[in-house]
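fyi for ur records
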Amino acid sequence: MRIVEAALITEAVKRLCIEANRNLPQDVRERIRECRRNETWPVAQDTLDKIIGNFELAEKRRLPICQDTGMACVFLEIGTGVYIEGDVNEAVHEGVRQGYREGYLRASVVADPLNRKNTADNTPALITIDFVPGDKVAVTVAPKGFGSENMSRTRMLSPSDGVKGVIDFVLDTVEKAGPNPCPPIVVGVGIGGSFDKVTLLAKKALLRPLGKANPDKYYADLESTLLEKINALGIGPQGFGGATTALAVAVETMPTHIAALPCAVNINCHVSRHTKEVL
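which gave:
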């Protein structure tokens, strides 16, 4: 059994909070540049140029890519051969607390959804823990901005709705979102599970590297179909029109009940922030 001090998780989370907010993942950068090369609408071209200039300047000056530095979504994959010495949840919260303060990142979390008092340090984090084989701890931090989060939806479809119902729901969600989530967007789609699990599937789908298809060809084809149909909507970068409404669509699935077809769409803006460290 390998012992991992909870303090190591705190340090990792702190580093990752700062890193994720300052540096866009390489796969996202490359996809934006690819879309710029393929874009034919002049206004969309200019908008994508500004987006590229923004993330390049953020890295150079060590500044946040976006003023909304998001809610800290922290995913832990803990090996079954690991014993963590200390309080895991508090270690994560403390890492967020330190990272947002030391990185001069905007604190955007309120302690109560109705009384709206800011916690002033962006805690608590939203923590998801999965147990996996091995003796490592993988820490992923994905700061989630809420211009895009607010455009996300969940629907309990009927099994008879089938794949057409899923496609129609995803397209309707993106079309209703319009320019609000700061396109070009990344679309995470969850299918299956239950009312609560399907939304987590959609959020985890956003962590997949852009360009990496679902290993199941059926769902890889569905991803391609959805991306093509979404980009045909013509919303374009920042809603100014063009062929680049979405950078990618990622679909994740799990078994569900015979009477259900849960579907969730979690939208991310082009600032698709996430970074990972293995302890």
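Strands lie at 2-5, 71-79, 82-85, 126-132, 137-144, 153-157, 185-193, 246-256, 261-268, 275-278. thats all i got for now
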